[in-house]
Amino acid sequence: MRNRASLILALAIAALSGWAIFSALAWPWKAKLFPLVISIPLLCLALAEVLWVLLGSAPGAAAADFKLSEEHPPEVARRRTAIAVAWIGGFFVVILLLGFLIAVPLLVFAYLKLQGKESWGFSIAFTLALWAGFYGLFDQLLHLPFPAGWLFEWLGLAG
Amino acid sequence: MLEALWEGLLLILQWKPFAFMLVGVLVGFWVGLLPGIGGATTLALMLPFIYTMQPVEAFAFLLGMHSVVATTGDITSILFGVPGEATTAAIILDGHAMAKRGEAGRALGAALTASLIGALIGAAALALAIPIVRPLVLTFGSPEMFMLAIVGLAFIASLSAQGARGMVRGFLAGGLGMMLAMVGQDPQAGVARFTLGTLYLWQGLDLVPVLVGLFAIPEIIDLAVRGTSIAGGVPAGRISRGALEGVKDVFRNFFLTIRCALIGTFIGITPGLGGAVAQWMAYGHATQSARTPEERKGFGAGDVRGVIGPGAACNSKEGGALIPTIAFGVPGSTSMAILLGGFFLLGLVPGPEMLTKHLALTFSLVWTIVLANVITVVVCALLLNRLAGLTNVAGHRLIPVILVLVFIGSFTSNSQYADILVTLVFGGVGYLMVVAGWPRAPLVLGLVLGKIAENYLYISVARYDAAWLARPVVVALLVVAAAVVCYPVFQAWRGRRRSQHA
C-alpha cells in the first residue's frame, strides 16, 4: 500500500516536473530560471523514487509525520474512507448548489442523523447551535460574502 | 534606556491602552482558535479601527491581538489536527498525536509554557537587539537570502525523514512545494506559469486552502475511519496533572526551548522568511535533538519535544519580526507589513525616530507582547479542562464541525469556490503522502519559500552573474546546507556501526 502510494506520488511529480521543464523552455530566461533550477533535479529525484519502488525495495521508514490508525481491518478502513470521502465531496457539491447558508445546517444535521445515528432532539439542537454560531460570526459580524447556490442562480432566485 | 523601558510599561498600563489590549487579546484568542481565519487577515480587517486611536492604544490593540494568535492556534492544532493558523501547522505532527494518545493536557501544557517562554525571549530580543542588529541584517544581500531559504529547505527535508530514501522523499516534497509556489504570473517577465488557462491561478496558490487541505482532510478521514473521538476513547484523565507534566517537560528540555525560541527570533528578524518557516525550522531542530534512530522514530508519533520546539519558535518570532520593522521599516512577515501600514496610518515613520523620539512607544510594544502572552496563557490554563475535554467528544459530532471550519476557512481566503477545490485537491495529496509515509512539512516550507527564493535567485543572477556563489556568507551557508544533509546519513551510519559492535 505504502509503495503503491509512493509510486503514484513519484510518477505524478515526475510528470509535473517534466511538463514544467517542457513549458519553461518556451519562456524568457527571467521566467524560466527558477522553474528549471527546481524542476530538473526534481525530475531526477522522482525517477529515482520510481526506480526504487519498481526494483522492489522495501518502502523504508515512514516520515516524522501524522500516521493513519491501523486498528481496523483493511476492508473496513477502505469502506469507511470511501464513505468519508463521499461526505466531503457531497458537502462541496451541496455548497455549490445551495450556498453556505443552507448547506451548513443541512450537512450538519444529515451527518449527525445518518452517520452518527444521533437522536432527533440532539441533532436539531446541535445543528441550530452550530448554525447560529456560524451565521452570527461569519455572516453578521465578519460580513463574509457567501454567494447563493448555483441552483438559485439557475432558477433566477438569487438576490 | 532603562527610563524609557519603565516609561513604556507605564504607557501600556494606562486604562485605555490596557483595555484596547484586552480587546485585541480577546479577538486574537478566537481568531487563533478558528482554523483558516488568519492572524494577518484579521490584522488587516482591524486597521480601519485605529484611525481614532492614540499610537500606544492602536499598537496595544493590534499587537495584543497578533501576539496571541499563535498561542491559541496551537490549541486547535493539538486538539483537532487542523492548523488554527498557518504558523501553527508544525505542532500538529506531535501535539495531535499526543492528543490522540489521551495526552492532550500534557501537550497543551507544554505548548502554552513553551509559547510563553518563546514570547518572553522574543520580547527580550526586541528590547536588547535594536542597537546591535542593524549591521547583521545589512550584510545579507539577495544571494545570502536565497541561500538561507535553501538551508531552511535542506534542514526540514533531511530531518523530517530517515535514511537516504527518506531524504529523497523530503526533497521531493520540498521541490513540489517550490513548484507550486511558481504557479501564477511570474513577477519578473509577467508570464502566466502553470495556470491551466484559469484566471483563478494567475495570483498563485493561496497558502490557507493548501494548508487546510493538506493537514485537515487526512485527519478527518482518519477520524471517520476510527469511528471514535480524537483521543480514540482513551480517557483524558486529570488534565490539570497532564498539563503540569507538560510544563515540567518544557523545563526538562529547557535549553531546547531556548534554542528553538532563538531560532524563531532569528527567523523573525530575517525579513521575508516569516512565521511559517520558523515553526518548521524549530521542528527540524527539535528532531535533531534525538540521539538515536529509535528516538527519531518517536517524532510524529507524539514526542513532546516536537510540541515544545514549534511552540517556542512561533511566539518568539513576533519580537524578532518587530526589530527590522521598527528599526528599518523592513517588515519580516505579511503581518508585520500590515502593522507597518498601521505606523503610517498613525503618522509614525519607522527608523531612527522610533529609537530616539518614540523610544518609550517602542518599549510599550515589548511590554504588549509580554502582557498579552501572560494573560492568554493564564486564561488558557484556566480553561484547559474544558479545552482538552473536547478531544473526548464523539468523532461523528466533531467531523461536521471541523468540516464546516475547513470549508469556510478555505473559502474565506479569496471568497471563491475554487479555494475549496484547491483544499480538496491538496486533501487528496496530503492523504496520499500520509499513506506513502512522505513528510508534508517540506512541501509547506517549499510553498512558503518558493516565491521569495525565486525573487532572490533572480536578483542574485541578474546582479552578480555566477559570482554570487563565491560570496563568503553564501559559501558558509552552502557548507551549512551540505552539513545538514550529510549529518543524518552520518548519524545513521554511526548507529549501524555501534549496533554491529554491540
Task: Let me know the largest β-sheet of chain A.
Answer: none
Radius of gyration of chain B: 22 Å
The ordered string of helix (H) and strand (E) elements of chain B is HHHHHHHHEEHHHHHHHHHHHHH
When the domains of chain B are counted, the total is: 1
Overall shape of chain B: globular
Tally of distinct domains of chain A:
2
Strand content of chain B is under 5%
Question: Helix- and strand-based class of chain B?
Answer: mainly alpha
Description:
The complex is a heterodimer of chains A (159) and B (502). Chain A is mostly helical and 159 residues long. Chain A has two domains: 53 residues; 81 residues, no CATH class. Helices cover 74% and strands 0% of the residues of chain A. Chain A contains six helices and no strands. In chain A, helix 1 runs antiparallel to helix 2, helix 3 runs antiparallel to helix 4 and helix 4 packs antiparallel against helix 5. With 502 residues, chain B is mostly helical. Chain B has one domain. Chain B has 21 helices and two strands. Chain B has a two-stranded antiparallel sheet with strand order 1-2. In chain B, a hairpin with a 6-residue loop joins strand 1 and strand 2. The radius of gyration of chain B is 22 Å and the shape is globular. The mean pLDDT of chain B is 80. Chains A and B meet through helix 1, helix 2, helix 3, helix 4 and helix 5 of A and helix 5, helix 8, helix 9, helix 18 and helix 19 of B.
